[in-house]
Inverse folding.
């Protein structure tokens, strides 16, 4: 592979300064970045290893009821934190439905947010890809694209964001804490990932040197624990990216939905918050009709970007199912096959 | 392989008789501890790393490579290209025998498929070689690639598989269809699939003058050695290949391919040992694959549900430069009795690496189509699929009319169905749901694979200390040859297994033939058995002719070898140990050779096949279309089972592969470039643990006196056949949706559910 500098800063400030240089990228677990480097998709000049920065691997319960998750917390550690599972079951379920046990043991919270698309044309350096090489064109557009975006895509890019974790996070209004050259700032996760427009090379709104230091779930996020879940349809039972997924979370009082949260995965270049669907669910009874209506709203703007019209119908059905399951109540224990349509199948102890 | 420290006291060891015992694999502990040395684990002093640069176009010509940039990269030692390479003794395009396939050895700038090797960068480190390869930044003159089953004009290949006739028929198919009460016609498609052995193709090559040392996983030590010898113009005995362990082969490591040849060339070019290991994505091109097929099946039945005709046509592809034709339609030769059968093939040429044998070549692709069609025919007749298969049970091989050497398929059906609970299956689809509301379906398929034999030789010796040696250049691909063949050796030598030094896996041993066609245990086993008998006969001769021996005068026929002793058959109180016989004769050892080969008389007289019945349960989400196999039972009759434990593993592996065929595996080819877009194990889906349900394997007792002296039929490939169809049929039974394009995708169920 291409030779690169490797630096291991000891403070966040040093890290930001080191990563603000052109050609520099952050390295956490490297579960995505190293693959990209081996495949020549990413050819950084400098890796800034943040795994030795202190204090970024903690899960903190803040006085206001929020939860602050350090960017270096490993996916598996978070997903198996009993208190976390109780308070944010959909997030835990999403984490456990992603990748493999080995990858989850390594992968970090911050890295998960910034993983690149799985579009095959992005990975295939002989293909034209506006995300990999700005302005080169998009070979996915007329290529093998049954798994590509149905929402928010543009003629220059039809890739999807592959994260499971981000889907319930965006539904729960997670906030991203960022350390940058101009100090600390925060944005809601929904504003982190960008839709492609004419500039798909930029996945996120981060500036050079920006380092995600934590993800925060606001106090209100806990209010959905009783009626929340993540549902993911995939092409094998485990270790596969979502064809389509959905996170649904409800607050139900006196037989009516007080608040609904809904987000979709595998459908767009970002985790797709379906606010119009949430709106129609406010102050209505959790009925099949209401969920159908929400599903139609959620996919109201969807259109196929290729051989993927089925994903729109699949997404609608997933929305209905996810809302139905959420309304029925969060199971007392995480199912053995988290987020799977086969979650209930007995005897399945592996994910 | 004296350096191998195989487990000497395997679990479950019972002395006395070895064949038939469920020994755990003798190499298991080595592997678990990471001490089994695979080819790429070898690092001879001074070794360099070679990395292939491969083409990103599927058709055209390399017009330039930036060799200067690659050479300038620190650590790069040399760059091998079509302009700069050691000469080969023969043109690699020449097919010197039917088991030689054309390969890319940088002999031309022509590009014939994506991922074709176009240069090799040799460097002090893997990283430098990798970057050097990237810096070559090839330019091409690109021609439109030929892609897919309709890429061009079809033709009828001269043969399919290995020398099988392209067309076969018996009876009048059209008349049979015309007279039928019920008919079906259906077209099934199977995708290109890649072997994806866990261990990538790898070679460590070192020249010493005109002597060549090779560490390389191979299923065919002697075919590989012969091919290397002719390519490099050296005598076979100058070549030493070590292949003690393979991390899977599945047909892709059977014959010498381009990449290991390039490794040997690179070592010659730089005059130092060289290691060349394929990256996962580089395995999608130069080392073979299973070609896609489109199969049309037509069947008719009379009023009783008996087949009147079976017509099976398969379209497949080969490369633009060589010939291998997946013999998919041949699957219809064996299983179902129809008075009229026709099988035929045609093909188109596409810009792909040449397809090759891949675990059950022809049988796997043909079986999923045939078993699906049989299921459709049974449904058309309103008959239970098992009852329908029994109604059309072949008492003789349908296409040839020959009797079977043995066929316990009825017992497979009975035992498998009983274990599965098949009798409770509703005839109609879309009838069963579980507590969670998931659709449940049950399907079945018949499994079959020919009982083949190749040629093999073994050398046996009894040493003065009473221990035995068995030498054979056999191959352990993970299937357990180190154990199963040692069991046969121990019985052949009349010794307990821990008294036998079993040597295998190197090319200086006797030729064991190829580990393919599910024939290795039968072929190598026969040679071992014969060699064992021959050395015991020599030993018995020594004793019987020695008046000081208690066996004096016993004669060869009158002696039994057991636990390191010879006994008089008629009086077991009279006997003596091997050590005593050799000591008295003043010999360090006696040795003998034996061979294994097919019996032409049996082949002429009998149809020889293993059989089985596979039953599968699937659950399907009724709205979301995701499928999960929840239960599989396979009952197989494959002659004598040398090691039930290993055989079970083989059959499990086959059944999982069958499930994979039905639901997961598919190489996705870009319709314009011809590149494989999912050439990695994240997106080329094979089942993971969570996909694999409880599997139940029954080995049905079968005694076959005709296949070979040991009665072994082989189990390496049969597990895929039947299984794929069983899963596909279960999906139909769950949903009422018949998907005829494999793997079954969510969208096909989604849009019809």
């Amino acid at each position: 592979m291409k030779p690169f500098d490797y630096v291991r800063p000891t403070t966040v400030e040093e890290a930001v300064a080191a990563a603000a240089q052109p050609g520099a990228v952050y390295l956490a677990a490297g579960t995505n970045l190293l693959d990209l480097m081996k495949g020549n998709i990413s050819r950084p000049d400098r890796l800034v290893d943040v795994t030795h920065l202190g204090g970024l691997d903690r899960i903190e319960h803040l006085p206001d009821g929020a939860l602050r998750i350090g960017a270096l917390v490993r996916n598996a550690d978070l997903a198996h934190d009993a208190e976390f599972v109780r308070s944010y079951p959909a997030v835990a379920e999403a984490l456990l439905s992603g990748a493999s046990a080995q990858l989850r043991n390594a992968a970090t919270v911050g890295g998960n947010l910034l993983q690149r698309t799985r579009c095959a044309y992005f990975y295939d350096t002989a293909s034209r890809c506006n995300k990999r090489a700005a302005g080169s064109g998009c070979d996915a557009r007329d290529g093998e694209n049954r798994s590509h975006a149905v929402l928010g895509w543009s003629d220059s890019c039809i890739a999807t964001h592959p994260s499971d974790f981000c889907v319930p996070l965006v539904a729960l209004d997670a906030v991203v804490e960022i350390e940058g050259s101009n100090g600390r700032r925060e944005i809601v996760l929904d504003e982190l990932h960008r839709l492609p427009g004419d500039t798909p090379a930029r996945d996120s709104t981060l500036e050079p040197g920006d380092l995600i230091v934590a993800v925060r779930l606001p106090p209100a996020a806990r209010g959905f624990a009783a009626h929340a879940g993540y549902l993911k349809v995939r092409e094998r039972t485990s270790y596969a990216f979502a064809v389509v997924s959905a996170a649904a979370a409800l607050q139900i009082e006196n037989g009516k939905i007080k608040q609904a949260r809904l987000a979709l995965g595998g459908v767009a270049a970002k985790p797709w918050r379906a606010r119009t669907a949430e709106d129609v669910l406010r102050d209505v009874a959790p009925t099949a009709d209401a969920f159908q209506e929400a599903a139609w709203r959620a996919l109201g703007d969807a259109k196929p970007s290729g051989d993927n019209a089925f994903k729109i119908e699949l997404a609608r059905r997933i929305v209905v199912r996810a809302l139905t399951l959420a309304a029925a109540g969060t199971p007392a224990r995480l199912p053995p096959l988290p987020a799977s349509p086969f979650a209930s199948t007995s005897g399945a102890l592996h994910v | 392989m004296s350096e191998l420290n195989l487990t000497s006291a395997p679990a479950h060891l019972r002395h006395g008789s070895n064949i038939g015992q469920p020994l755990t694999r003798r190499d298991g502990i080595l592997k678990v501890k990471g001490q089994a040395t695979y080819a790429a684990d070898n690092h001879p002093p001074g070794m360099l790393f070679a990395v292939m640069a491969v083409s990103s176009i599927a058709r055209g010509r390399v017009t330039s490579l930036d060799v200067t940039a690659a050479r300038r990269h620190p650590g790069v030692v040399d760059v091998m290209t079509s302009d700069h390479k050691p000469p080969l003794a023969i043109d690699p395009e020449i097919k010197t025998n039917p088991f030689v396939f054309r390969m890319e050895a940088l002999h031309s700038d022509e590009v014939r498929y994506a991922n074709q090797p176009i240069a090799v960068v040799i460097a002090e480190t893997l990283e430098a070689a990798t970057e050097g390869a990237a810096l070559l930044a090839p330019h091409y003159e690109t021609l439109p690639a030929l892609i897919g089953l309709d890429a061009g004009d079809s033709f009828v290949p001269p043969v399919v598989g290995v020398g099988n006739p392209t067309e076969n028929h018996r009876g009048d198919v059209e008349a049979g269809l015309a007279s039928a009460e019920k008919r079906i016609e259906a077209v099934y498609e199977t995708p290109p699939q890649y072997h994806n052995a866990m261990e990538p193709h790898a070679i460590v090559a070192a020249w010493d003058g005109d002597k060549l040392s090779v560490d390389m996983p191979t299923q065919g030590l002697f075919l590989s050695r012969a091919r290397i010898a002719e390519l490099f113009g050296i005598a076979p005995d100058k070549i030493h290949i070590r292949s003690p362990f393979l991390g899977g082969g599945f047909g892709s490591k059977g014959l010498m391919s381009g990449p290991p040849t390039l490794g040997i060339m690179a070592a010659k070019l730089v005059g130092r040992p060289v290691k060349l290991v394929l990256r996962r994505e580089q395995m999608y091109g130069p080392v073979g694959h299973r070609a896609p097929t489109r199969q049309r099946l037509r069947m008719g039945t009379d009023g009783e549900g008996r087949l009147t005709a079976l017509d099976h046509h398969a379209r497949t592809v080969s490369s633009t430069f060589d010939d291998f034709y997946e013999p998919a339609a041949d699957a219809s030769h064996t299983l179902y009795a129809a008075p009229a059968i026709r099988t035929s093939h045609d093909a188109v040429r596409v810009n792909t690496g040449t397809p090759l044998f891949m675990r059950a070549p022809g049988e796997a692709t043909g079986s999923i189509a045939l078993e699906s069609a049989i299921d459709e025919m049974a449904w058309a007749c309103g008959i239970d699929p098992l009852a329908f298969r029994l109604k059309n049970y072949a008492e003789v091989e349908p296409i040839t009319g020959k009797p079977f050497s043995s066929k316990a398929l009825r017992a497979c059906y009975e035992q498998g169905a009983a274990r599965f609970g098949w009798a409770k299956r509703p005839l109609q689809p879309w009838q069963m749901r579980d507590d969670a509301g998931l659709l449940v379906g049950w399907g079945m398929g018949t499994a079959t694979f020919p009982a083949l034999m190749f040629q093999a030789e073994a050398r046996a010796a009894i040493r003065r200390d009473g221990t035995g040696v068995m030498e054979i250049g056999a191959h352990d691909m993970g299937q357990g040859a180190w154990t199963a063949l040692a069991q046969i050796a121990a019985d052949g030598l009349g010794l307990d297994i821990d008294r036998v030094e079993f040597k295998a896996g190197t090319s200086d041993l006797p030729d064991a033939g190829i580990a393919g066609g599910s024939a290795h245990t039968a072929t190598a086993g026969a040679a071992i058995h014969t060699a064992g008998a021959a050395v015991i006969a020599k030993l018995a001769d020594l004793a019987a002719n020695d008046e000081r021996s208690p066996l004096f005068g016993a004669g060869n026929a009158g002696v039994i070898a057991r636990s390191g002793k010879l006994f008089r058959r008629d009086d077991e109180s009279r006997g003596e140990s091997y050590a005593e016989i050799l000591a008295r004769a003043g010999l360090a050892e006696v040795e003998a050779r034996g061979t294994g080969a097919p019996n032409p008389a049996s082949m002429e007289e009998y149809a020889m096949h293993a059989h089985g019945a596979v039953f599968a349960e699937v659950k399907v989400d009724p709205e979301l279309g995701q499928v999960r196999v929840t239960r599989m039972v396979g009952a197989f009759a494959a002659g004598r089972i040398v090691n039930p434990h290993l055989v079970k593993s083989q059959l499990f592996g086959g059944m999982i592969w069958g499930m994979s065929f039905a639901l997961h595996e598919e190489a996705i080819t870009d319709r314009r470039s011809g590149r494989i877009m999912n050439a990695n194990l994240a997106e080329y889906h094979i089942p993971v643990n969570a996909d694999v349900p409880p599997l139940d394997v029954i080995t049905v007792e079968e005694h076959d006196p005709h296949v070979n002296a040991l009665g072994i039929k082989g189990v390496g490939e049969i597990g895929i056949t039947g299984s794929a169809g069983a899963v596909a049929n279960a999906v139909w039974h769950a949903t009422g949706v018949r998907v005829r394009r494999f793997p079954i995708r969510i969208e096909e169920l989604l849009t019809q559910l």
